[in-house]
């Protein structure tokens, strides 16, 4: 398996998909990169030549923020919100949804698995 | 949707005047109800007492807060925990 940017080992998939295994690369960025390097997006990742892999790595490194750097940037942005104790920061601290979603039901991505409370009436029962 | 760039950020005009009058940031706090006002760089260092619907919450403006709104720093809801089963039963009847 080819290694692009150290840790990332995209699988035996079409290049446009394989690239999305890199943090910070989605479908559109993947296609953009393919186009710039004049690579066929349908090409399997395993069929890349050594040279092409190097090229890919160079472009991703230079012109896109990916992986560790991007993760750090995101973490720093959240840390800033926490530090100034604004509303969004408080929501991050409490592990609740940040963008005004309802929390009466759902919000399971942020709140984690259900913690059943005895005696609590079901949503259907509330009126 | 965000606010149009053409208009620029909304800074409560009355509050901006008050800040200007206060001059250098001192220890004096400025009481305000203008939660919707964006914090421009001129506010850095000033202390505001931002209304949360009940009382005024002390907010010391730092550089990082620029671009946020005053209300974001003055929580208007207070979560005291859920009632337990016994209390809930008492309340019910």
Task: Write the topology of this structure.
The complex is a heterodimer of chains A (127) and B (93).
Chain A: H1 15-18, H2 27-36, H3 50-63, H4 67-83, H5 87-94, H6 108-111
Helix pairs in contact in A: 4-5
Chain B: H1 13-22, E1 29-32, E2 47-51, E3 56-60, H2 85-92
Parallel strand pairs in B: 1-2
Antiparallel strand pairs in B: 2-3
Biased composition (Basic and acidic residues) (chain B): 84-93
GO cellular component, one term (chain B): cytoplasm
Region (Disordered) (chain B): 1-29, 72-93
Description:
The complex is a heterodimer of chains A (127) and B (93). By secondary structure, chain A is mainly alpha-helical. Helix content of chain A is 45%, strand content 0%. Chain A is built from six helices and no strands. In chain A, helix 4 (67-83) packs across helix 5. The model of chain A has no long low-confidence stretch (mean pLDDT 86). Chain B has a domain at 13-73: Ribosomal protein S19/S15 (30s Ribosomal Protein S19, Chain A), CATH 3.30.860.10. Helix content of chain B is 19%, strand content 15%. Chain B contains two helices and three strands; from the N terminus they run H-E-E-E-H. Chain B has helices at residues 13-22, 85-92, and strands at residues 29-32, 47-51, 56-60. In chain B, strands 1-2-3 form a three-stranded mixed beta sheet, with helices on one face. Chain B is elongated and about 55 Å long. The chains are: A mainly alpha (127), B alpha+beta (93). Chain B: One of its GO terms (molecular function) is rRNA binding. Chain B: Belongs to the universal ribosomal protein uS19 family. Chain B: It comes from Rohdeia mirabilis.
């Amino acid at each position: 398996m080819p290694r692009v940017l150290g840790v990332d080992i995209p699988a035996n998939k079409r290049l446009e998909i394989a690239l999305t295994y890199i943090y910070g690369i989605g479908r559109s960025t993947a296609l953009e990169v393919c186009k710039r390097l004049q690579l066929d997006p349908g090409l399997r990742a395993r069929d890349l030549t050594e040279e092409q892999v190097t090229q890919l790595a160079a472009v991703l490194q230079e012109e896109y923020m990916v992986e560790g750097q991007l993760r750090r940037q995101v973490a720093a942005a959240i840390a800033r919100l926490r530090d100034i104790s604004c509303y969004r920061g408080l929501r991050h601290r409490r592990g609740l949804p940040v963008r005004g979603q309802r929390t009466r039901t759902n919000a399971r991505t942020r709140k984690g698995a259900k913690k059943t409370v005895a005696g609590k009436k079901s949503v259907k029962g509330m009126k | 949707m965000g606010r149009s760039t053409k208009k620029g950020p909304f800074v409560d005009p009355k509050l901006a005047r008050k800040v200007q009058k206060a001059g250098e940031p001192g220890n004096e706090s400025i009481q305000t109800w203008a939660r919707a006002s964006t914090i421009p760089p001129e506010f850095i260092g000033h202390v505001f007492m931002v209304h949360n619907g009940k009382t005024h919450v002390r907010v010391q403006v730092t550089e990082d807060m620029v671009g946020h709104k005053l209300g974001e720093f003055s929580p208007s809801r207070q979560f005291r925990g859920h009632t337990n089963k016994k209390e809930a039963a008492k309340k019910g009847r």
